[in-house]
TrEMBL record:
Gene3D superfamilies: Hypothetical protein af1432. GO terms for molecular function: phosphoric diester hydrolase activity. InterPro entries: DUF3391, HD/PDEase_dom, HD_GYP_dom. This is HD-GYP domain-containing protein. Residues 148-344 form the HD-GYP domain. It comes from Thalassolituus pacificus. It comes from the Bacteria. Pfam families: DUF3391 (PF11871), HD_5 (PF13487). Transmembrane segments: none annotated. PROSITE patterns: HD_GYP.
Length: 429
C-alpha cells in the first residue's frame, strides 16, 4: 500500500509515494539498523526470541550470518515524481530501510535524561522539605540535557512524560512540566538559552509544595477552605525558597509565584491579570495544567489527553493564553506518544511517534490482538497504509490512557518493550 506526500527541494516540487514492503537479502548484504522480519528457516530453529528484530550491532550480524543464507528485511520504498505545471516528470526511485534504530537510540538517551532529571529534582525537593540548602548546578545541567533531547527528538522525550507513579507525583510532575514547557517553547521558536531558562522554571515551579503539610498535600478527598488556603500558599513558599539566590534564573522565582494566576485576574495568590504575566509563566501554566489533569492523584484518576486538551481549549483567553493553547494542542496532537490506540479491528497498540506530515497516522507498537489478548509485538506505521491479517486497512478507533485494556504503559517502560531494539531502549538504567 502507498502513502503520498508533496515536498519542495531546492525550488523543485516532488510527489513522494511511499510503499511499505519486504525485500529478500543475502546475509552478506546486511548492515546494522536493518529490521529482520523473516528467516530462511523456522524461527523455532533460531536463538531469536521474537519474530522480527532489529540488527543492532556486529554480534547480531555475525550470528545471523552464521545461521542463515538469506533473510527478509522490512523496507520503505520511495518513488519520487518531479512535478511541474503540466504534471509528473520521469520518476526517480530510491529505497531506504525503515528507521527503527534511531528511535530506539533516542528513547534510550531520553530515558537516561528523564531519570537523571527526576533524581535531581527529588534531591532538591527533599532538601527544601528539610529546610536544607540545595545546589542547583546539577539540576541546571540536567535541564540543559532536556533541551538537547527535546530539540533532537521531541517524540522520544514526550513519550516518557506518560511515565506516571502516584507515589512519585511531585517529582515526576516537575520533570514533566519542565519537558512540556521546553517543547512548547520550541514551538514558539525560543532560542536554546531561553529554553534552558524555561526548563528551570518548569522544574522548580512546585518546589513550594515541600513546605505544605503532607496530610494536606496527599489528602484523598476535597480540601476544606482552610486546607485550600494552606495549599495555595505553596506559591509564596516557593518565592521565599528561591528569592535572593544568585545561582538561579530570576524568572523562575516569578513563575513559581505566579503559575496559578489567570489571564482574567481570577487566579491566586495576587489575582493579577494578563498584563502582568510573563511569557514563561503563561507557558508553564499550560504545561502544569495539562500534566496535572492527565495524572492519577490520591483523590482522583487522571483524565484522557483529549479531555485535558478540551478543557485547555475551553478556557483559552480566560485562564490560559490563546496562542499557547493552540500551539500546545497542535504539539500534543490527537495521537500523543505513550497513549494506547485501539484499531477498528480490535487490536491495541502503544503510540510511538508520527512522521512529519503524518500526525494523524502514527507509528504504533501493536501489543494486543482483536480478542484483547497479548500477541507478538510489532511496529505498524499507519502512514504506510498497512493491512491486518484479513487484508483490511488499519484504522484508528479510539485513544486511551494507560491502564485501559489491562495495559499499563509503565510496565513496558519499567521492563522495556519486548521488540528487539526497544527492550533496552527505554529501560531505566
Amino acid at each position: 500500500m502507498i502513502g503520498s506526500i508533496t515536498t519542495t527541494r531546492n525550488g523543485r516540487k516532488f510527489q513522494i509515494n511511499k510503499r511499505h514492503t519486504r525485500k529478500r537479502m543475502e546475509v552478506s548484504e546486511l548492515t546494522a539498523g536493518m529490521y529482520i522480519v523473516e528467516l530462511d528457516r523456522p524461527w523455532t530453529e533460531s536463538p531469536f526470541l521474537f519474530q522480527g528484530f532489529l540488527l543492532e550491532n556486529d554480534d547480531d550480524l555475525l550470528l545471523i550470518q552464521t545461521l542463515c543464507q538469506w533473510v527478509m528485511v522490512d523496507v520503505v520504498e520511495e518513488e519520487w515524481n518531479e512535478l511541474d505545471d503540466k504534471g509528473k516528470i520521469a520518476p526517480q526511485k530510491r529505497t531506504r530501510y525503515v528507521e527503527k534504530q534511531e528511535m530506539a537510540q533516542q528513547l534510550s538517551a531520553a530515558n537516561r535524561t528523564y531519570q537523571t532529571t527526576k533524581l535531581q529534582i527529588k534531591r532538591l525537593l527533599a532538601s527544601a522539605q528539610l529546610g536544607q540548602a540545595f545546589n542547583l548546578k546539577t539540576a541546571q545541567a540536567a535541564v540543559k540535557d532536556c533541551v538537547d533531547r527535546v530539540v533532537n527528538n521531541p517524540n522520544a522525550i514526550l513519550w516518557l512524560t506518560r511515565l506516571k507513579h502516584q507515589d512519585e507525583y511531585t517529582a515526576e510532575h516537575s520533570v514533566n512540566v519542565c519537558l512540556l514547557s521546553i517543547a512548547l517553547g520550541k514551538q514558539m521558536d525560543l532560542a536554546p538559552f531561553e529554553l534552558e531558562n524555561l526548563g528551570i522554571c518548569g522544574l522548580m515551579h512546585d518546589i513550594g509544595k515541600m513546605k505544605v503539610p503532607t496530610e494536606i498535600l496527599n489528602k484523598p478527598g476535597p480540601l476544606d477552605p482552610e486546607e485550600f488556603a494552606e495549599m495555595a500558599r505553596h506559591t509564596l513558599y516557593a518565592k521565599q525558597l528561591l528569592m535572593g539566590r544568585s545561582d538561579i534564573y530570576p524568572g523562575a522565582v516569578d513563575v513559581a509565584f505566579s503559575h496559578h494566576e489567570r489571564l482574567d485576574g481570577k487566579g491566586y495568590p495576587r489575582g493579577i491579570d494578563s498584563t502582568k504575566l510573563s511569557l514563561f509563566t503563561r507557558i508553564v501554566t499550560v504545561a502544569d495544567a495539562y500534566d496535572a489533569m492527565t495524572s492519577d492523584r490520591c483523590y482522583k484518576p487522571g483524565m484522557s489527553s483529549l479531555d485535558a486538551m478540551r478543557i485547555l481549549n475551553n478556557n483559552r483567553g480566560t485562564q490560559f493564553d490563546e496562542e499557547l493553547v493552540r500551539k500546545f494542542i497542535s504539539m500534543i496532537g490527537l495521537y500523543p506518544p505513550g497513549y494506547l490506540l485501539e484499531m477498528s479491528n480490535g487490536e491495541v497498540g502503544i503510540i510511538l511517534s508520527a512522521d512529519p506530515g503524518y500526525q494523524l497516522k502514527p507509528k504504533v507498537i501493536m501489543i494486543l490482538g482483536p480478542d484483547k489478548q497479548p500477541q507478538p509485538e510489532r511496529i505498524v506505521n499507519l502512514s504506510m497504509a498497512p493491512e491486518d491479517d484479513r487484508g483490511v486497512l488499519y484504522q484508528p478507533q479510539g485513544v486511551f490512557r494507560s491502564g485501559c485494556f489491562g495495559v499499563h504503559v509503565n510496565d513496558y517502560i519499567d521492563r522495556g518493550l519486548r521488540i528487539k531494539g526497544f527492550e533496552y531502549g527505554i529501560h531505566a538504567d
